[in-house]
Amino acid sequence: MITSKDVIRKLEEIAPKKLAEKWDNVGLQIGSREKRVNKILLALDVTLDVVQEAIDNEVDMIVSHHPIFFSPIKSVDYDSYRGQLIKNIIKNDIIVYTAHTNLDSSNRGVSDALIEELDIKPTGILSKVYKEKLYKLVVFVPETHEEALRGVLGGVGAGSIGNYSNCSFTSKGTGRFKPEDGADPYIGSIDEIEKVQEVKIEVIVSEDKLNKVVEEMISAHPYEEVAYDIIRLENTFSEYGTGRVGYVEKTTLGELAKYIKRKLNTPDIRVYGELDESVERVAVSGGEGSDFIKDAKRANVDVYITGDIKHHMAQIATELGVNIIDAGHFYTEKIVMKKLAKYFEGEFSKDIEVLISEKDNIAKYYSL
């Protein structure tokens, strides 16, 4: 049985809450972590149309990108749009969970979905927001328990390197120890030197998971006293941030804009710069990207691809010499839903049905 807690745990593995901006409100919005989940609906926004879609499809949980609540609410007025929305969600026992700026900064989130969709070759992060310390955990275990312990370590997040999980290294050797009076040895006898064929398992562990990994390792280990080392890796960090920098095949600003319009299926697109200018080095940031124009300048890109660029910010970009392709907030973010759907389907196989909302985007408009 899969519960909402299981879904949340898997989502927070790729979009941990620590990556969210301080002003943001990510996590569980409405509902219980213990509810059984058979069907998930993915949406950028939780609107009345999206909730009705969830009801019609007997969805147990909505995973959204934008929060319902950015600040505390003082009342739930059923005659208001927001009040009716909350009422319908609770009445139909639907879980709502949000991954917003933490999904923006995730190494498997909005920015990566955008560069994959646009066939951009990534070279780095546009705006770094978090640098996480890494440690190497080394533990010695008898050969009989090697695979079981390795499974426990991987199950709590040890051995995650980039887009790879359960990474480890093993070497074999002989362990020696003498149980003293008062010991209760798993192997060996009191006051006698014991030799055991053991393996040394080495895994990388991020700082936020270290205590939990050690706790689970000790609990699963057969020995009364577990021999292990924790080594801080001064030269290795996991970096997270908003946006990506990369390269496209050399083209013109105008041709790149047409390509993006077609790939993202956006009804209109705005270009700030000379259409015949040659471009190759690009930066991207899904959603509203005004805050990262100066980062794009520092990255020395030919063009910055994002959404929701207002007039005065476009003027600043022009003064800085940064070309901009504004493909819209919705259209530069919605492509992450396909990535999330694929991720959940891979993690839960056929245990959960994953739907991508067809009623998303409250702000309907037409390009005439």
TrEMBL record:
Stretches of the chain forming a coiled coil according to its record: none
A cellular-component GO term for this protein: cytoplasm
Any Pfam family the entry gives: DUF34_NIF3
Keywords from the UniProt entry: Metal-binding
One of the record's GO molecular function terms: metal ion binding
InterPro entries the record matches: DUF34/NIF3 (IPR002678), DUF34/NIF3_bac (IPR017221), DUF34/NIF3_sf (IPR036069), N-reg_PII/ATP_PRibTrfase_C (IPR015867)
The family this protein is said to belong to: Belongs to the GTP cyclohydrolase I type 2/NIF3 family.
The protein's name: GTP cyclohydrolase 1 type 2 homolog
Natural source organism: Anaeromonas frigoriresistens
